[in-house]
Give the backbone structure.
Amino acid sequence: MKIIITEEQMDKMKSKLMTLVNRDGYDKVANMLGISKIKLFKLVDFDFKDFGLENMFAIMVEENNVYKECEITIDYFESGYRIDWLYEIDIDGGQLFVLSFATPDFYDGSVYVENSQSFTEGSIGFKVYNNGLEYKVKEYNFNIPTDFDSIDDMVNWYNKEYLPKTYEIMKEQVKEIIKQI
């Protein structure tokens, strides 16, 4: 069975959703409908460019914050935020944790992936390696778009470029650290 929705019906649905959004906010409406904020944005033809690429990116991270062995978090502060990647790997009976920053700069068109700190934990004890004092790790960067035509374009870029490229850089940083521990 096919369901055909007319343009008028779509407009009514968008209008009703926007009434809810204006009353309750995007978070509550998305939660009430059981969909992501990104999906809700697309349903109501949200103008993401006025919202800002940085704000859209933060929402994408909040909704998709695990990639392979990495946990991705946002550290908010007064003047913005930072994207933290935590890579965890078993090594010699213990664990190695590598924390790197990978915040996109949409004005500059690049992401710098810099190692913040790493530490080991487990049966080999606990030793902190911090800020290049015990090891040296190369800082990497890659170019990114400074504009997107649609939310879908930005989501595709996030899933197909940002996540895999940053992950590959994290793996390289982990290899560099393991050689020096």
In short: Confidence is low (pLDDT under 50) at residues 129-133.
